[in-house]
Amino acid sequence: MAADPVEKLEIEKMKPVCNEDMCQNNCVLDTSTTSFTSTASCSGYETSDTNLNLGDSFDETMLCHHQPHLLDLPPEVLLHMSTFLEARFVVKTLTLVCKMFHRLFSHESSWKIRISKRWPKKYPVLDVDDDHFNWKRACIEREETYRMWYQHNSTMNAFTLNSGHFAAIDSVHLMQGGDICISGSRDRTIAIWDLRKLDGLEPNESSLNAKVKSLAKHSGWVWSMTSLGNTLCSASWDCKVKFWDMEAGGTETYSIKGKSANLCMSYKEDSLIVGSFDKKVTIYDPRAGYSIVKTLRQHSKPVLCLAADDDYIISGSEDNTVVVYDRRAGEILKRIELQKYKFPMSMSYCSEYGELWIGEKRGLLHLLDASHGNFDIVKTYDVGHTGDRKSVV
């Protein structure tokens, strides 16, 4: 039985209306049977073989007019409107609404423009290859990070873990995706904290309950910590590097005795690299019982920070230098001189993007371009610190 013409028109108004050129809708009018067949694919689903028999009252001019629709707007307007929405919502939700949205919001160039309009300064700080850089992901992460810190009073809870040590804490390390926090102190102990137990509604009580265990096996200040998988590695002024199995509740599994205080480390599957107070960088092989592979003597004062990958070992010292050692060539690639009394105290190395960040004594932050083995200082940031910058992540 044919539906009432008025009812049919109302049904048609509820259907997705789209630009035929952009959304590839196929509309066919069969004048011999006065039926209207529509195949709509712009909304992420497809309806076909929908014959609307309008009878003798059908007016062909109805095909030339439709209600104003969001998809009729120019792409530039849609892109501007999307900037008022969270980037993650645009990527995860709007791109699934219809093919037009999917094509519009899938172009990496639109996300690059979005970042540049909101943050006019150069981003990333080093040049990147657009063909290999994920602007979409970068935009999501930057917006969420900015929002998290800009609105920190409403997006974060602050906790003070003050029941683990009675002396200054010189090292903090996160494990297991940030669920477990390890702190090393001048009281010669290591404290293990389960951050999943923290509760914003009961901050004081939950902070007390978050402590899992104390490890008191060092006889000197615990100065540096790192990890590989579930193995924690701690370096101390007692000249020892100790290894702890976190899956076994922090059981000590191994210990290395050096000749001087150990101040920094880099831990990989094929190497443990330790910088020490006696101006040396020592390379151990975990696959051979942590036997010494090589000792580098390339500084005139204590080695305070380290970073390494398969190609380079980068060490910073109190002698105001940063030395880049080429592991394949077996020689120093570059020696970088910093200003007097502004020696490096910490560093973070991202080989994927060729960025080396160095925090120094006076609180400044230096960025080095490590791409292609250049290691040139390209920018220095003064972010308000007036004292030692002992950690950079």
Can you give the helix content as a percent range? 10-25%
Oligomer designation: single chain
What is the structural class? alpha+beta
Q: Tell me the distance between the termini.
A: 71 Å
Strand order, sheet with most strands: 4-5-6-7
| Count of DSSP strands | 23
- C-alpha-based Rg, rounded: 31 Å
Form type: globular
- The helix tally amounts to 9
Mean pLDDT: 83
Unreliable sequence segments: 1-58
How much β-strand is present in the residues? 25-35%
**Biggest β-sheet description:** 4 strands, antiparallel
Structure description:
The protein has 393 residues and is an alpha+beta fold. It contains 9 helices and 23 strands.
Please tag this protein with its features.
393 residues, alpha+beta, four-stranded antiparallel sheet, 9 helices, 18% helix, disordered N terminus
How are the secondary structure elements laid out?
Blueprint (H helix, E strand, L loop, with lengths): L4 H10 L5 H4 L2 E5 L4 E5 L11 E3 L21 H8 L4 H6 L6 H6 L3 H11 L16 H16 L1 H4 L13 E7 L4 E6 L4 E5 L8 H7 L1 E5 L6 E7 L2 E6 L3 E6 L5 E7 L4 E6 L4 E5 L4 E5 L5 E6 L6 E6 L3 E6 L3 E6 L4 E7 L6 E7 L4 E6 L4 E5 L6 E6 L12
Antiparallel strand pairs: 1-2, 2-3, 4-5, 5-6, 6-7, 8-9, 9-10, 10-11, 12-13, 13-14, 14-15, 16-17, 17-18, 18-19, 20-21, 21-22, 22-23
